[in-house]
Specification:
The protein has 379 residues and is of the alpha/beta class. Helix content is 45%, strand content 17%.
Length: 379
Amino acid sequence: MASSLLHCSDKLPFMDVETILHMKEGLDETSYAQNSSLQKRGMDTLKSLIIDSATGVYISQMPERFTVADLGCSSGPNALCLVEDIVGSIGRVCCRSSQPPPEFSVLLNDLPTNDFNTIFFSLPEFTGKLKAAAKSDEWGRPMVFLSGVPGSFYGRLFPRKNVHFICSCSSLHWLSQVPLGLFDEMNRPINKGKMYISSTSPLAVPAAYLRQFQRDFNLFLKSRAAEVVPGGRMVLAMLGRQTEGYIDRRTTFLWELLSESFAALVSQGLVEQERVDAYNVPFYAPSIQEMEEEVRREGSFRLDYVQTYEINLSSSGDAKEDGRTVSMAIRAIQESMLSHHFGPDIVDALFHRYTELVTESMEREEVKSAQIGVVLTRL
């Protein structure tokens, strides 16, 4: 993601998104690695689409080296599971046609602050699974070469015409920067008390977020157009809206609860209202129409498939368990930015209240999110 500054008063900290935003590192209780089950559930929804799309590219091109890139790989157990499935699927195709499997170049990308070490620590387990799968399915053991590629996917990452297949799950809803236009000419926040689009936000707020999404997604497509071979594909999955209006409860509800949690801390004197008013998230959940328009405008890819998927976050039937799962997932994602803007001392209190609010909501109703899945082919 391209670096930027959070526009606020001189008393408040700047936020360089590229150096600040990262999932919680390590393997402890609050790490992303231990709290990414919601992302795994969303990824599993599109698993067959991803595997079939990658396998289809291989069958159509039969390259000796098949290059796969995962953009926004993060640091949890989800990073390599799709790669394992893609390699296995192509290996079985080769076995049926008595062809040797290709060599696989796997490019794992995320921002430079990502905890790549946690991914590479799991490499022996990953290669062991591939070896066992190859033996059981009687296809030759594949050669898989893993590389970490730090950098923003809002810009070039790979050499020209080098990548056959790209997937990106739960990443493209993160913008390159907090949108411009969220402060007035006197540098006062116009979305007071809220950190994202809400029903009380003035129209300038969703307009600013849409403009930022359009710039970012267009740059993403241009960058990938240079890197993907003709006929190569991308499968993109991100949080999105099922409505054309800016307010979709599936994408705004959890942000609203986080804003309520901050209001509780303000009332207790634990954080200043000025800091809350100046905090805006670099996040946008687009509609299908908004995505389609950018694909057409950029012009390098054919849109083969697009669909929204609803994911029930109230999954276990135990509101307390589900509330903690959701709260810990949001903490693992947001903690780096929250600690930078507010200081680390408020994080425990904030998410204690947030867990309570999410749990209370799940006791009353099912809480759901919406995901958009897209398949694009390079023209």
